[in-house]
Design brief:
The chain is an alpha+beta fold. Bound molecules: copper (II) ion. Copper (II) ion binds next to loops.
């Protein structure tokens, strides 16, 4: 289990590095690693193809303290197909206790997706990858 975790972390870090380079023109400071623990609950469970829905993303520090006052942007796509999301999801509310509502999420294909949540706190951008298979 530890080995799988380590491999997954390495994969995530390499993906984050790529994403970080893409965003390197931003003024804000970019961290190539994700300094937070992210989890999400989908309004649709299971997620259905081609149905618009929202997520609640929960952010914690690595020691388990809920993170408040963040802004989240969500991007993503299918790495095997070289395309992005068909919609532009937006954070619409901070719900408290480290929870944030993201609306306008829709997936138009089943398969492997990769969602990158940019967590913005005090001009620091953290890029956190959420792997997803539909
Ligand atoms: Cu695709």
């Amino acid at each position: 289990m530890e080995i799988f975790k380590a491999i997954r972390t390495l994969i995530n870090i390499s993906l984050l590095f790529t994403v970080g380079l893409v965003h390197s023109q931003d003024q804000a400071s970019i961290t190539n690693t994700c300094a937070y623990k992210l989890s999400f609950v989908s309004e649709l469970d299971p997620i259905e193809i081609n149905r618009m829905h929202s997520w609640t993303i929960h952010i914690e520090t690595l020691t388990g303290i809920p993170v408040e006052g963040a802004a989240i942007t969500l991007e993503g796509g299918m790495p095997e197909h070289d395309h992005g999301l068909p919609t532009s999801p937006r954070m619409t509310a901070e719900l408290g206790s480290g929870d944030y509502r993201i609306e306008g999420i829709r997936f138009h294909m089943s398969g492997v997706w990769e969602i990158t949540a940019t967590i913005i706190i005090d001009d620091t951008h953290n890029l956190c990858v959420i792997p997803l298979e539909l």
